[in-house]
């Protein structure tokens, strides 16, 4: 991999969702860091891969959006457990150097209905 354009983001997400540590590790540059601001955590790539791969359960997902801006690659991915009882959206910001992930910042959110107070105001409508 020589440039951002050569980073196969679909293959990265396939490895992450399959919880495959060896496959995931190949995508990270030496010294890469991962931030999860929602829970105030900073990981080395190895710690992040371990957290991902030891998370209980089996996961699936689909990339809903990708955007590229220089060395920054942004993805929005819907992640759900295999029986589809839990669903999340993750927005990930990848800083790519020489075709590998040098830094990653992710924001996870639970999917679900709007809060009751907003439903009572009858604002908005379903996206799909």
UniProtKB/TrEMBL annotation:
Xref: Gene3D superfamilies: 3.10.450.50
TM stretches of this protein: none
One Pfam family of this chain: SnoaL_2
Record SUPFAM superfamilies: NTF2-like
Superkingdom assignment: Bacteria
Domain SnoaL-like: 10-103
Protein name listed in UniProt: Nuclear transport factor 2 family protein
Species assigned in the record: Candidatus Allofournierella pullicola
Biological classification of the source: Bacteria, Bacillati, Bacillota, Clostridia, Eubacteriales
């Amino acid at each position: 991999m020589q440039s951002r354009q050569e980073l196969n983001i679909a293959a990265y997400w396939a490895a992450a969702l399959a919880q495959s540590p060896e496959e995931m590790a190949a995508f990270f540059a030496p010294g890469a860091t991962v931030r999860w601001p929602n829970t105030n955590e900073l990981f080395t790539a190895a710690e992040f891969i371990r957290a991902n791969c030891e998370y209980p359960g089996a996961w699936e997902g689909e990339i809903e959006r990708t955007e590229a801006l220089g060395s920054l690659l942004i993805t929005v991915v819907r992640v759900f457990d295999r029986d589809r009882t839990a669903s999340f959206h993750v927005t990930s910001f990848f800083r790519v150097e020489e075709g590998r992930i040098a830094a990653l910042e992710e924001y996870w959110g639970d999917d679900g209905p709007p809060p009751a107070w907003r439903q009572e105001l009858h604002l908005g409508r379903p996206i799909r």
